[in-house]
Each structure stands twice: as structure tokens, then as C-alpha cells.
Amino acid sequence: MHNTNTKTKILCLTSLELSNSLRELKEHLDFNLVFSNDLFKDISLKQYEGMIIDADILSDKSIIKIINSVEHKTKLLISNSNDLDECKYDQKIERPINLKNLNGKIIKLIMINKFNQNSSVEIKNYTLDKNEKKLKNKNIFIDVTEKEIQLIELLYNKKKSIPKKDILKSVWGYSSDADTHTVETHIYRLRKKVSEKFKDDNFITNDKIGYAIWKKEINSR
Q1: What is the distance between the alpha carbons of residues 119 and 102, in angstroms, rounded to a whole number?
Q2: Which of 3, 31, 75, 173 fits as disulfide partner to 89, beta carbons 3.0 to 4.6 Å?
Q3: What is the pLDDT of residues 16-43, one digit of tens each?
Q4: Per-domain residue ranges for the chain?
Q5: Cα-based distances in Å from 41 to 16, 68, 189
Q6: Helix, strand or coil for residue 51?
Q7: What's the pTM?
Q8: In contact, 91 and 105? CB cutoff 8 Å
Q9: Dihedral sign (CA 38, 42, 43, 48)
Q10: How far apart are CA 182 and CA 207, in angstroms?
Q11: Residue 51, CB half-sphere, CA atoms under 13 Å: how many?
Q12: CATH top-level class of 4-119
């Protein structure tokens, strides 16, 4: 078994009955199950990669609301009912709980969630899909190259403008004193694609220091 301290932490939101059942299984799980003492405080903590939700607690509308507000977390619902559309969850497991089934579903959901987070990035009012190599705004998209993806992520993840020499080094691995128009050429092409498709001339900005994609949203015209 894994060391408890290094295992993925899953928050458990349960009724007393289910809580007692899961506590008996806790030491045999492939993730670290943490039982909530303060739902409204614990549910917002970043240390948990997901949560197990007992359908019996969902009679409280305020609980449904706060669960639905949590994004980018794996949510496994334990229930006997099919009438729970108000609560947003990734997958359901029915009672009685099977240890192997519970383990497998949680681990699989976490892997899917991590893949989706790594392959899709929100950039201002766009979605950068690194898997499909597309920059999207609603149902409109442009195709982007691998270098353009790296360039977009670099410019967006920094909180300030980046000099050309630093972009060269980070994206192309060139020495900082390399004399090349690679950065200007790629930025020109990317700006042109964004402008023509999305009518957005402010996707990449530049100043005397360098280039940036500011986190403040700028609506497309």
C-alpha cells in the first residue's frame, strides 16, 4: 500500500451511516479519504483532488449549490436514486459499495480530470485545446501549431511583458543574444489568425519591454 501522506486526497461528504461504512474501508483504499467536519470550509480547499458525495446529504439545496460551484474536481456520487440531476457529478456508484469498484472509479476519474486540465487552458475569453491544437471561442476556432501553443502559454502565464530574448530561450531554446526574427514572425502570424477569425486585435500586446497576453479579459469585437 502507498504511504497515506503521499496518496491523493479525496474529501468525503457523507451522512453518518455511509461515513461509518467508509471509515471501515479507509485503510484499504488507494487514495486518502478525508472526512469533512465543516463542509462549507473544506469544500473550497485546494488540497483535495476530488470528493465522494453521499446522495443522502443532497436534500439540503445549499449543499447542492456549493458542490456545483466547485470546478476542476473529481466528483463521485454514491446513491440509489436516479433523480439527482440538480447535483453535478462525474460518475455515480450505487450501494452496496464494492471496495474494488470504488477504488477503480476514483483513480480513473482523477486521471481523466488531470488529463483534461492539462490539455485545456482558459486564456482570457478563449479556450486553448492543446490536445486538438485549437484556440476556441464558443463554436469558432483556429488551428494552432505546437510552437504557437508554447508561445501562448508562456505569454499568458507571466504577469508582465516578456522580452524577445527570453521568449527565444523559453520556446525555441536559442541563446539570449541570437539574432533572429523568429519571435516577430510567429507573433505576426498568430495575431493575423486571431484577428481574421475572432476580430480581436488585442490578443497579444507589446510594449517597450516585450510581448504579453494579459489576464484581464478583452472581449472580441
Answers
A1: 26
A2: 75
A3: 888 888 888 888 888 899 998 887 788 8
A4: 4-119, 124-212
A5: 19, 15, 47
A6: strand
A7: 0.54
A8: yes
A9: negative
A10: 18
A11: 26
A12: alpha beta
